[in-house]
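Handoff note, outgoing to incoming analyst
You'll be picking up this chain. Sequence as last confirmed:
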Amino acid sequence: MKILLIDPPFKSFAGIFSLYFPLGLTYVAGAAKKAGHQCKILDMDAAEPKEGSLNFTREYESYSSYVSALNDPEHPTWKLLRQLVLEQNPDIIGITALTTKFGSVIQTARFCRQVLPNVPILVGGAHASTMPDLCMQIPEVDFVLRGESDESFAQLLEAVEKRRGLNQVGSLSWRDGEKIVHNPDLAFAENLDELPLPDRSALLNPENYSSEDMGVILTSRGCPFRCSYCFHMWDQKVRYRSPASVIEEILEVHRTYGTTQFSIKDDSFTVKKKHVLELCEAFKKLPFKITFNCTTRVDLLDEELLMTMRNAGCAQISLGIESGSARVLKDTDKNITLEQVVKAAEMLNRHRLFWTGYFMIGLPRETEEDIRKTLQFLKKVRPFYAGLGVYNPFPRTKLFRQGVELGLLDPNPPISHFLKTNPKDLFFKDPQKRLLNIDHERFSQIAREATMAFHRHNTNLFNMARRGFARRKAYMYDPSLLKRDLARAIDFLGLNRLLKIG
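Most recent structure output, in case you need it:
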């Protein structure tokens, strides 16, 4: 069978630069290939040369362009989607769904059915796992796959090809007449080494990805923690790939794309110290030098681990800090303290290792004083880069349930809601009532002030120089990355407009 997997347009509609590729779809493509099928991946944010900004100071406003594009069938991106889908002429279409871009999922399904009316359409991904019934409300959607799809997708393809046995496909939601059936969940794969490697060759328009884009990898799946803003699909269990499997993928990606900069997308890379130490030893034995970045927690770092990672090529670590208020931090259920954050920050700054701290504001019970404490804490811990997000509630999380109980959130909005609402406002009964203790006008003002404070921190020449110096090895191994980063820096500083005027 010919399969087309689609990652719907999102960041390109909002004018935001898109990094990497849809890793989950390449895993699914690998599984389809192993089962004897032909599979292609259409990443609509990379269907044309990547453009867009990494300046997030007006992110909320930029999403008005996204909502406008969603509802314009003649938008050039939708025209391109229809053209490319027709050219591929698949036997089945799969669409990956994230909550924030569910509106784009709806329209992608509609336009696919419009041009290929007899082709079955499947939806998978994180949002399919959290809200399968909502996904099945899209009239054009025939199937929804919940959870991991490496094995269940191959089962579904066999059932569709033989026109029978849908009730035997694990984790499948489907229609039996007017009835929606949810098959029992398929158990997660225990041995990740037995799964096919991600099939990057399935990506259409490979020329629109950089070598760094192609370097996104997983060394484990799952997370043992229970943060209140996360959906816990993994039941607090982590499964690991062997170092040999990870090295096999790195060698293949380097051979094919020349990649030397890898981005490890594990939920928390350093959960198992032995796993990290073994990987770092394997990285050092590679026939070429690599650099890598990863995400972890402040309570999962120590001096020995940090130095081992750095010597193996670690060039950046991302940490979820969330808040400078101990009270709000407790509400996140991260089970970390401000003292642990300070200790980790001091260690990273002492070793001059590029680290990113991620913060958020706008939790339901947050106060203005809590937000002020976060801004003060930013100055205290001094990350090389600081990301700030306004809290966005996601279904089947503890904070989402709290928001429903407090009367702030609607857990069951209609499908039409996702086509006309800013993706930062999804599920709010009233976007102008996000918090209990701060009115909308005041919170909007505070959020703007906080965003600009973070932007000033990130565009501080000292911090930009720190980031550039930390990536010097990546530039040595792949000089094209320096050119791309300089272009980002010019945009980030707002100099691109001046240069165009000049």
